[in-house]
Automatic annotation (TrEMBL):
Membrane topology recorded in Swiss-Prot or TrEMBL: Single-pass type I membrane protein
Residues annotated for ATP binding in this entry: K120
Species of provenance: Oryza rufipogon (Brownbeard rice)
Lineage summary: Eukaryota, Viridiplantae, Streptophyta, Embryophyta, Tracheophyta
Residues covered by region (Disordered): 390-421
Ranges that cross the membrane: 6-26
Protein name: Protein kinase domain-containing protein
Localization per Swiss-Prot or TrEMBL: Membrane
InterPro entries attached to this UniProt entry: Kinase-like_dom_sf, LRK10/LRL21-25-like, Prot_kinase_dom, Protein_kinase_ATP_BS, Ser-Thr/Tyr_kinase_cat_dom, Ser/Thr_kinase_AS
PANTHER family assigned: RUST RESISTANCE KINASE LR10-RELATED (PTHR27009)
Length: 421
């Protein structure tokens, strides 16, 4: 009897203890869930535009002295907000200028912890709509991560200073390497091929893998930055809308993009899709293949021909060896080089629908997808020339001329920059 009641008491006490332990575990799990949800919510809060031109104190502003806070933000992959004083400190009072482009001047800097940065001070005074876009772009670019995209660490939005703070890439932009004979000659073909594939992956991510498709509108060697090991990263993908390219990027024709890389639909009144980036990517591949600008007015007159068409003619006539010889490509790299040429020819097709998707481009470059024989991407020029000369009695502007004028990166680019400034 005594033993039975002892056993009963034991069972009851054991039961109560088990219930208490269970409850404790459930509390812990609930608390963990709540903490996770709170963190997720915090991370999902967009950097929202100001309601009345001012920002509340709960945004991600970085005051001097709260360095820990912004380093935390960076660690949590949230674009940080800097003050003009922060920027001055990072850049040592703007001591080292890295370069300048259509949007502003870029300076080298360093976070207090030692991480190197590139600070782009934007030229333009932004109106209210542009201000809102600036914030939207910060929210987009600040949350778009890919190994082949330049990382945006933060921004400054102040009455006097609008700036973007990016990760710093040791080898600068591809144009500086590619169009400098000595620097380009020092690069192995495999490195160049790696740059092509990495850039394609970056654009593929913008088009097909991030939450909202991002059209870059300005793929060109100046917007491909190179890390210390020449790994490429696409830059400025958040700026397409920010600077309202309709008005600023191209001038005389009212088109967008940069001449020489901009697809025909950007300079003709045709609908524009993400395939305009595929076209620009094709032009970039030609410049990598040729290790020269597609239209290079610095060259002797006899070799000034527009490179993409010159390469097409050689390819079409089965004389691809001449393309390889012209840029010193060795026969062991012939297969990869021909693949690059075929992909580029598909990318620059006049009809956007005829251009491949970027995922297909990546697969073709990597040899995982068969590449059909490209069709002539320049056939439209002959047709349009015939139309323009018959309607103007032979005095019309040649389409071939306007296409390669559009290809003339040098002169037209400086026009664009003048206007942007
Ligand atoms: N994150 C960076 N790391 C290292 N160098 C950079 C970085 N960003 C820009 N630069 C340097 O600054 C130069 C100017 O860049 P910027 O983006 O302003 O001009 P762009 O690319 O020539 O033209 P666009 O205005 O069309 O982008 C680049 O050519 C590059 O050399
Ligand atoms: Mg740029």
């Amino acid at each position: 009897m005594k033993y039975t009641s002892l056993a009963l008491a034991g069972i009851i006490i054991g039961g109560i203890a088990a219930i208490l332990v269970l409850k404790f575990i459930m509390r812990c799990v609930e608390a963990k869930h709540a903490e996770r949800a709170r963190r997720r919510e915090e991370e999902a809060v967009p950097v929202s535009p100001p309601a009345s031109g001012t920002y509340s104190s709960v945004d991600v502003r970085v005051e001097m002295g709260s360095v820990d806070r912004f380093l935390d933000d960076i660690l949590r992959e949230k674009p940080a907000r800097f003050t003009p004083e922060n920027l001055r400190e990072f850049t040592g009072d703007y001591a080292e200028r890295l370069g300048a482009g259509g949007f502003g001047v870029v300076y080298r800097g360093r976070f207090p912890g030692g991480v190197q940065v590139a600070v782009k001070i934007l030229h333009r005074t932004l109106d209210r709509r542009a201000e809102e876009q600036f914030m939207a772009e910060v929210a987009t670019a600040g949350r778009t991560y890919h190994i082949n995209l330049v990382r945006l660490y933060g921004f400054c939005f102040d009455a006097t200073t609008k700036a973007l703070v990016y990760e710093y890439l040791e080898n600068g932009s591809l144009d500086r390497v590619l169009f400098d004979a000595a620097a380009a000659a020092a690069l192995e073909f495999d490195t160049l091929h790696g740059i092509v594939v990495g850039t394609a992956r970056g654009v593929r991510y913008l088009h097909e893998e991030c939450q909202h498709r991002i059209i870059h509108y300005d793929i060109k060697p100046g917007n491909v930055l190179l890390a210390g090991d020449y790994a490429p990263k696409v830059a400025d993908f958040g700026l397409a809308k920010l600077c309202s390219r309709d008005n600023t990027h191209l001038t005389m024709t009212g088109a967008r993009g940069t001449p020489g890389y901009a697809a025909p639909e950007l300079w003709l009144p045709l609908p524009v899709t993400h395939k305009c980036d595929v076209y620009s990517f094709g032009m970039l591949v030609f410049e990598i293949l040729g290790r020269r600008r597609n239209l290079d007015t610095q060259r002797p007159a006899e070799s000034q021909e527009w490179y993409p068409r010159w390469a097409w003619q050689r390819f079409d006539q089965g004389r691809f060896g001449e393309v390889m010889a012209a840029s010193g490509i060795r026969s062991k790299d012939g297969e990869k080089a021909e693949r690059m040429c075929k992909v580029a020819l598909w990318c620059i097709q006049y009809q956007p629908e005829a251009r491949p998707s970027m995922s297909s481009v990546v697969r073709m470059l990597e040899g995982e997808e068969q590449i059909a024989r490209p069709v002539n991407p320049f056939a439209y020029m002959a047709t349009m020339d015939a139309i323009s000369s018959s309607s103007s009695g032979g005095g019309g502007v040649s389409t071939a001329t306007s296409a390669s004028a559009s290809a003339s990166g040098d002169s037209a680019q400086s026009t664009r920059h003048d206007i942007c400034h």
